[in-house]
Amino acid sequence: MRNRLAVIILSLIVVLCLVLLLYKGREETAINVPGEGINIPPVKEEPLVKEEKKPLVEAGDVVDLDKESFAQFINSDIPVVVDFWASNCSACRMLLPVFQEVAGEMGGKMKFAKFLVDAEGNWAIAEKFSIKFTPTLIVFKRGKELGRLIGYKSKDELKSALEQFL
Description:
- With 166 residues, the chain is an alpha/beta fold.
- The protein has two domains: 2-40; 62-163, Glutaredoxin.
- Helix content is 36%, strand content 21%.
């Protein structure tokens, strides 16, 4: 008797799940189960992490690039420095304030951007430029690589290395 009751309950749950799957994506349609008095409101799907799209900023700021904005940003007539970094990289986190400070000082002469290599969809671009270690800084002009720096650099080291591309 208990086994039959368990089977019936599980069958009802399976049927209810199938009904929910059939109506998935129809946000304006509530699910009504006839004769049961059950009214299930529609489910609105939202991403777990909301991405905020920031406008590309020119002078002195460090821009967060993604796979959509990358190609356009590096196609600049002035040199562009892109910091390829990873979220689990401690040297990347140490470099960030230095990178931002240098960007503030050299902002009119160069553009500065960060590119998170381990974000969804970004690895293909990192692979295209043979990013093996993070942080890797690549200087671009008109979409062509002019040079690269690998690893943490002090402010003076970074500034003098970037000045050769001006």
